[in-house]
Amino acid sequence: MENTTKDIVSVEPLGNIKDLIFTIRGKQVLLDSDVARLYGYETKAINQVADRNNKRFPLAFRFQLTHKEADEVLRSQFVTSKNSEQNTNSERRGGRRYLPYVYTEQGIGMLSGLLKNDTAVDVSIGIMNAFVEMRKLLAANADIFANLAHINTKLLEHDHKFEEVFSLLAQPEIIKQNIFYKGQFYDAHQLVRDIIKQAKSRIIVIDNYADTSVLDLLATKAKDVVVTIITDTSSRIPNAAINKFEKQYGSIKILTSKDFHDRFVVIDNKVYTFGASLKDLGNKCFGVFKNEDVARFLAYVERLLL
């Protein structure tokens, strides 16, 4: 048997060994640092015993974790083994100079026969019993674990969808009032400015009566946002006003079309409908609404932009 007496440290109480067993690559295993702690050895001493007898430790008995596996396992083990912080935290927090090894039940059996330690027999029996109990637990609850694995897979597939939903829920709602009354000049203009500030890439204003007052509202946009105004005639916005706007706020494109009756403001891929021309905000009672199903409308508008 191996003589590793000089490497013996204080023996850790066995406690609940089942909490230290985890499954990886389809095998139930113990981390080398936990094995060492249970037997009362330094981790390097345990692995040296296995290295010197490497023919007795095939992959079914002992194997080394990859970087990804080590990160996941050590993080999990740190959370579930707070009672053993003094001996192993330095290793789990990056003190190790090599990737950790794990031992299967067969590996523990082989290791126990090689260690020259008065407590090795009792420890080995405790570890073996823990492996047996874990096998019984997994077998008795196989259907539950299979369902959990299936649920976890589905959740991973839909993670990005949940993130999109939560992102939308986290955004403040711009429209807090759908109907504006005559005389609400400030409130109506502030609403439009708040909507325009949302834009990340583009703004499209569709308004047959758009004039230079629309340019004043658009001055609140981010500099790199592309602006297009679609109106029935370009005569209401003089070239001089456009040139002045472009010098300070970036290029703006004016298109003419007689295809629209209502007024719309497109912010990236969001579409707002206005019951009044933007130049008449606050002059009369009007409504403003955010549209939900806009894919077909956006496709229609984008054909005009070509």
Describe, in plain words, how this protein is organized in 3D.
- There is one protein chain.
- The chain is an alpha+beta fold.
- Helices cover 47% and strands 16% of the residues.
- It contains eleven helices and eleven strands.
- The chain has helices spanning 32-39, 43-52, 67-80, 85-95, 105-114, 120-140, 142-170, 185-197, 212-218, 239-249, 295-305, and strands spanning 22-24, 27-31, 62-64, 101-104, 179-180, 202-206, 226-231, 252-256, 263-267, 270-274, 286-290.
- The strands form two sheets. A seven-stranded mixed β-sheet has the order 5-11-10-9-6-7-8, with helices on both faces. Strands 1-2-4-3 form a four-stranded antiparallel β-sheet.
- A hairpin with a 2-residue loop joins strand 1 and strand 2 (27-31).
- Helix 1 packs across helix 2 (43-52), helix 3 (67-80) runs antiparallel to helix 4 (85-95) and helix 5 (105-114) packs antiparallel against helix 6.
- The longest helix is centred in the middle third of the chain and has 29 residues, at 142-170.
- It is rod-shaped and about 95 Å long.
- The N and C termini lie far apart (82 Å).
- The model is unreliable at 8-13 and 81-94 (pLDDT under 50).
